[in-house]
Sequence to fold (321 residues):
Amino acid sequence: MGWQVTTASVADGEKAAFWGEAVSRTVVPVEVVPLAARPFDGRLASHRLGYVRVSTLEADAARVSRTAGLIARSRTEPQVGVGVQVSGRAVLEQDGRRAEVAGGGLVLYDTARPYSLDYPERFRTHLFHLPRRLLGVSEGELRQVAGTAVTPGEGCGSVLLPFLGTLAASAHSYPAPIGDRLAGSVADLLSTLVGQLTGRAVEEPEAPNDHLVRRIRAHIDRHLQDPGLSPESVAGAHHISVRYLHRLFEGEGLTVSRFVQRRRLEACAEELARRGRTAPTVSSVAQRWGFVNPAHFSRAFRAAYGVSPREWRATGGGTAG
Fold:
């Protein structure tokens, strides 16, 4: 799904503000100050590929700033941003670093900290944004590379830049399952780029989207107590389709729902086995870990551990009888 906006039908005095609001709604909240004396002209097209937002901006000279105040008021989670310059120049400043690129280069930035992007002449650029937590790199590594420019001749820039350019041009044409897979490829390539820029030792390559599976498992563990946890809620939280979520878990040897149930049963078993002065009731433990049907919980627990929840609690996690 995507959308497009243009200043063509907006009154001259309102064009810059209109375009700035469109960028803020679509990409990330920013301030836009036009640098040309004439009425501002700008176009924006944006599409989502899984958890990656791909936006193409074409506009007159402008300064785009993400200020500390905007960050403090922002409700969006931290994003890693990549600007691929198609035409015109871009000058990025973040964390005391200044990076300039012309057409064919890219800049990296972190939306969790202030930055500015100056476009001193009319420009066209592709912006890629994805949640920082899904990139699979540390915050320290991101601080090292934010405010950095990459040219086609540097490291994996020769692979990444053509790929991103082609992806932006065709983002509107991919069905959701393909978009989900392409998002994983973007994250993997950016993670590799960050590793190269920081000098991180090259490790055993992961299978595609291993980083995403780890984060989905961590998300499930954090939300085990929510009875509304489901494949639909997990997929929605990571901006992927339910179908693609199930495909990711094929390597786990069980469905997403079964994985959630197994983790809940493990949490219940651990709590019921604890020795204390006041032992919790079986029903309270089951409810605390997301089981809404006591009979279903008892059946599932016995199937997994060979004894009833009460027998498990009575023996401290040992074998009944």
Notes: DSSP finds twelve helices and twelve strands in the chain. The chain has two domains: 2-198, 210-314.
